[in-house]
Amino acid sequence: MVKLILCAVLLVLPLAATAFPVFRDGTVVYCSGDTLKAGSISSPMVTDWNGDGRKDLVVADVETITGTTYGLLRFYENTGSNALPAFSSFTYLQADGFDIHTQGYC
Ligand SMILES: [Ca+2]
């Protein structure tokens, strides 16, 4: 499970599979050595987006560009491993050469 706290991504893994999940303490996720910060009202998802076997991070967020609020999808490629993920930057997910976006929130 990934939980977003104060615009920084916090990874929270289950400690045991029980009827009532118990979670470990969270782990801050870093990008280029700094706390990974996405836009406001972010919704992270962990998935192997590019199919290389390493779990990446896709974050839906909200950004205001020239006065208009858009929902965008950030892709953070994991260049580390699943046990020790590493992120250095992000790109916006695109379709037909254009950033996938919504007006308002994703
Ligand atoms: Ca991947």
Explain this structure to me?
- This protein is 0% helix and 52% strand.
- Strand 3 (14-16) and strand 4 form a beta hairpin.
- The radius of gyration is 15 Å and the shape is globular.
- It has strands at 2-5, 8-11, 14-16, 22-23, 27-28, 30-31, 34-35, 40-47, 56-65, 68-76, 91-92, 94-95, 98-99, 101-103.
- With 106 residues, it is mostly beta strands.
- Calcium ion (CA) is lined by residues 48-50, 52, 54, 56, 78.
List the helices and strands and how they pair.
Blueprint: E1 2-5, E2 8-11, E3 14-16, E4 22-23, E5 27-28, E6 30-31, E7 34-35, E8 40-47, E9 56-65, E10 68-76, E11 91-92, E12 94-95, E13 98-99, E14 101-103
Antiparallel strand pairs: 1-2, 2-5, 3-4, 6-7, 8-9, 9-10, 10-11, 10-14, 12-13
Bound molecules: calcium ion (CA).
Calcium ion is lined by residues 48-50, 52, 54, 56, 78.
